[in-house]
Amino acid sequence: MMKSVKVINKSPILKLDNICVNFHEKQVLKDVNVEVNSGEFIGLIGSNGAGKSTLLKVILGILSQTKGSVSFSEETGKKTKRQIGYVPQKIFLDPNIPLRGRDLVALGLDGHRFGIPLPSKKRKKRVDEMLEAVDALAYADSPIGKLSGGEQQRLLIAQALLTEPKILLLDEPLSNLDIKSAYEVTKLVSKIGKEKGVAVILVAHDMNPLLGVMDKVLYLADGKAVMGKVSEVFRNDVLSNLYGYPVEVLHVNGRIMVVGGNDSSLNLDANVNYCVESGEIT
């Protein structure tokens, strides 16, 4: 007698259905659909004003959508705010503030309280685990003002991971980093996501540091979105349809440039100025 096989349909850890957001009479997001699975790395690409930060705010629940729905799987749990780690776009760290690296990370546990509680063995262990995960133990006791941008970014990621989130949102964490640091941070986030089963959504203008680690790209332009593998999204027909005017994917010296079409009247901006490694396109 044959044994029955139980088939388990794994639902996305996060699902956005037909998300629309209006500010006054302007539609910022237009029927955006996104599915994110556990451990998946998604690069959210688009220029200023494309709607990237707005989309993150909808996921975080700090901005209500005009239309559509946001749903989390049972794996994420009901306490969604505690299950989402978040590194905002702009954090100014005063170079003179008397705060060590490990103190900054610890704020992920108790930053919502008044004052910083006295250290405990359990608390220190959690902080040390996250410092080790982001390879920051070497400068954990250094003043944060003396650390490089890449080192500070690692600490902020460790802080966001302290609550053991199921989803990690990073809003342009590479914008102030040099090329080497940007690649290091990207690889680090990818490694942590895969090892801990954390879904990562990383916002970026330049997708080059994300190549080779991201599973999918979510491309926003004028509030509209297209999502898929790099080879599925970076195509003439797909991007032309997204922008509503001709867009070409060009091979230049072993790389691929996304540029406007032959219409010289088009006012192109950073939206269509991305390079991707040719090896990522098939």
Automatic annotation (TrEMBL):
Show the CDD domains listed in the entry. Answer: ABC_Metallic_Cations
Q: Which organism is it from?
A: Clostridium acidisoli DSM 12555
Write down the InterPro entries for this protein, in alphabetical order.
Answer: AAA+_ATPase (IPR003593), ABC_transporter-like_ATP-bd (IPR003439), ABC_transporter-like_CS (IPR017871), Metal_Ion_Import_ABC (IPR050153), P-loop_NTPase (IPR027417)
Instruction: Indicate what this protein is called per its UniProt record.
Output: Zinc/manganese transport system ATP-binding protein
Q: Which SUPFAM superfamilies match?
A: P-loop containing nucleoside triphosphate hydrolases
Q: Which UniProt keywords apply?
A: ATP-binding, Nucleotide-binding, Transport
Fetch the Gene3D superfamilies from UniProt: P-loop containing nucleotide triphosphate hydrolases (3.40.50.300)
As one GO molecular function, the record gives: ATP hydrolysis activity
Sequence ranges assigned to domain ABC transporter in this UniProt record:
14-247
**PANTHER family given for it?**
METAL TRANSPORT SYSTEM ATP-BINDING PROTEIN TM_0124-RELATED
